[in-house]
Amino acid sequence: MSHPADDPLAPALPGTLPAELRAELVAFRRDLHMHPELGNQEFRTTAALKDRLERAGLRPRVLATGTGLVCDIGTVDGTPGDAVGERLALRADIDALPIPDTKTVDYASTVPGRAHACGHDVHTTVVLGAGLVLAELARQGRLPRPVRLLFQPAEEVLPGGAAEAVECGVLDGVGQILAVHCDPRVDAGRIGLRTGPITSACDRLEVTLEGPGGHTARPHLTTDMVTAAARVAVDVPALIARRVDARAGLAVTWGRLESGHACNVIPQRAALSGTVRCLDLHAWRQAPDLVHAAIDEVATLHGAKSQIDYVRGVPPVVNEVDSVQLLHDAMAARRGTASVEDTEQSLGGEDFSWYLEHVPGAMARLGVRPPGELSSLDLHRGDFDVDEHAITVGVELFTAAALL
User: Which class does domain 19-199+316-403 fall in?
Assistant: First the structure.
């Protein structure tokens, strides 16, 4: 597979990956891919990262949660302590998904019902590779800014492992944080950038409706529960859409509706499950109150009592302008400005947003589609895979960002 070459006019930054390290990183990614672990269970992954970083002369620290780790490279003002706002953090998420791997490759998952189907194995390998390169540059006195590697567990578990990582102090002394996310719609060798929101908020919603059941011959003497549930399913999303600015993109979408067991019995209970997604941070903060009010309103109209479990997920990832510019300049320095493209705001959620509640930063879309491929395998599919050249691109992007 051919890939775009480095821009011959780009500045000669140190930190380009030698062939030996590229091969090692591909092997490391494949090993992770074969041994996926779910959120807060990433013990093998954590141990593998810790071992490799220690062999590079670094001192990684396992998070208090038991999985995941942080590792500092370089010093602040000549000392190992952290001055406020000095460090650049590079974040990776290390967990996998509870779905089977359906690929026919020699590095397919060996764990039934588990797969790295979102590219977290690539994110992890990219940050590891950047850390190995930057550690060598720091030993040579060529690292202008101290860096923190952050390998975070449980990104796929609401409300996301990032919130717990912040509580563990991973942002102490950090002034800026960067991340990448695999994008199968972008060619390997390229990245997608966007200033402002790049992902959406995503919350989980569980609703239980209750009322007196009865005979289907006499619905007027009961709460017609199936009708009540159907009206909640249909009317609540429509009400929500009319109570916020349409540009906020606040949407309730149901994935489950259950009620009843017999054709002539009006049930006493119904249950609905779904998600609440939102493009706008301000509207997301209002969403729980708006959703509660709309459900209560519709349920009461039909004589049902509602119990609502609104599980906060993650806010949108809102990329800060200077951090986006840093990623742009770093990629341009490596591969030229043509390797950077604009990207749309995704409706998916990402707990990287919790870090941006505290420090400025940005996430880039890392191209993983083989150049020339017309179709792409979406994320969260058992047959998802990547063009592994993306690992080299991600490492060089992060190393350039640390050196600029």
Answer: alpha beta
